[in-house]
């Protein structure tokens, strides 16, 4: 499933556009209101289009299937025999999702998964699966297996409870195969008191510091209004036993809750389809009430339509007709006062006296904030607008056949007393139906908005061997979301913030901080949240009056200015003139090349290369013309120079050092750890030069280096690196990240 509709649907709609009479194309092109665009597309969408979606989605069936469940169970048995219990549990979970309700296959898959969980020391989860197997008709002649396993689990839990009573430090201990469950504690979120929401014609809504914000301080914590998990391949490492001969890969959809994105080995399946699954019955029920009761009948159709279309639909379903109608109403009276109370303008701001524009006001985390995000419809090409409009119209027609919406969706005049209405109990029936084209229009609006306002949710995935003493990881995208408060932040190619996502369970995102000031009143608007959150921290000191910015993707340390500006303009429709672009523009226009190569770096002044002198560690500066580029040390006491070809050769050596370090780390022999540390030290210099000495990239590299020194017995080297890694990880990830806990454990061990 990609962000945009699948290729076959894309081609189908493109042919539909090409087949339109030129006059109809011209009429569509000149439409300026989203309602008009949707109605026009709805009039052109036929049953043939709906049938075509059905024919494509047949290739991605999400129906229950006993035969497929049996195959998954057999694959799980094979993994179980090789003692790869994690892989086995995931295969059995696949079988559970495919198995029809109350079928023998369902009971067998639950029973087999309980065995894998028992070996992973997930005893309570094992007991839960035993109960599920029994409720679904587990064969009577095999009951003795479950009875013996139940007895074993109860004994182990009793022993563990006694150990916990005598060892308070072990109360939070988890078995080696355990996957954390969602936190039951409340998470507060909002904007810190040192920042306010401002608005201007040029920047729209944005966040500005009104007091000094120290590096590492939490600026805001937000939860998504809605999100959609993205299927993707994740390699599975064996835990609790020997690794199988071949490594299996499972999609993100198999390993994570489809609501809170928490990792889980024992998901609760949707009773209607084989695709959706959840970490708990709580997440299952919440998803059902909010959106899945309508998504489930659509099944694989949503995969054909793409992630953005599904997210747009999910936002619309969550809001409901009442909130959509309210968002469409002009701001007036009490609503205006309520909205303005959320926007912290300085009292000297003359704009306060003007009539507020709904597109530049901040509505907290309500649907109003999402609805009034800019959609840039007039910036999209007519062909792309037509694709989005026909997609929304087809979804609208499909949705009309899924059954009636809740009675609380009945059209009614919204009250002007508040911003967001409270939903009544969702009882189906009454006079509610899907006849209001406002719902379809809202889906189209959100599809258009998401092109510029969607946020990728990323997390670190382990890439090293199972139970490796040295952590190796890579960043992967697991979901796409819309964050009401995060969307306030504008872009910079060299931002003054860093983002950290948490899924399922996490510490309070507005908890203790490196600054004493940051722990006080986090925001005027506090809410309780579980599941997915994003925390924005200051990556450097932000002074009063400075805008708070984050990077939309193209970063000055990874990409040259022209390429960044092109990508940003193509997707977000603005020409970036941030500080990094302004500083680097002149230099890059001079054509700093070496066989066509440009040099993106940490970048400061126009001639800075982001590279350090190999003799004195001073900053190298570029000089010369396009024909002969030289890199000269900026320190007059050194004066060392290098040609561009020499720089290229040194960079290649650093790449080789990094590859050797990774190879040696995977062998996990003490001698190799020392050699790997030597190679990693060389690559850390390059990473610091490219990404900056305060970057998270350097922090993760230093964390890995500390692990290598620790495992290699290099006490002094480890104690030297640990504080540097700790500072950077705390700056970007906060004081509660698990890497900091590991660094503390290493330091305590080394200091005796």
Automatic annotation (TrEMBL):
Predominant location category: cytoplasm
All residue ranges annotated as the SET domain in the record: 182-553
MF GO annotations: histone deacetylase binding; methyltransferase activity; zinc ion binding
Record function comment: Protein-lysine N-methyltransferase. Monomethylates PRMT5, modulating its transcriptional activity. May also act as a histone methyltransferase. Plays a critical role in cardiac development. Acts as a key epigenetic regulator of gene expression during cardiac development via its dual activities as a methyltransferase and negative regulator of HDAC1.
Region called Disordered, residue ranges: 335-357, 403-434
Statement: the UniProt record of this protein carries the keyword Zinc: yes
Keywords carried by this UniProt record: Cytoplasm, Metal-binding, Methyltransferase, Nucleus, S-adenosyl-L-methionine, Transferase, Zinc, Zinc-finger
GO biological process: heart development; methylation
Recorded catalytic activity of this chain's protein: L-lysyl-[protein] + S-adenosyl-L-methionine = N(6)-methyl-L-lysyl-[protein] + S-adenosyl-L-homocysteine + H(+)
Biased composition regions of type Basic and acidic residues, renumbered to the chain: 335-354
Domain MYND-type: 257-296
InterPro entries listed in its UniProt record: SET-MYND_domain_protein, SET_dom, SET_dom_sf, SMYD4_SET, TPR-like_helical_dom_sf, Znf_MYND
Subcellular location: Cytoplasm; Nucleus
Cellular compartments per GO CC: cytoplasm; nucleus
Organism: Acanthochromis polyacanthus (spiny chromis)
CDD domains: SET_SMYD4 (cd10536)
Transmembrane segments: none
Name of the protein in its database record: Protein-lysine N-methyltransferase SMYD4
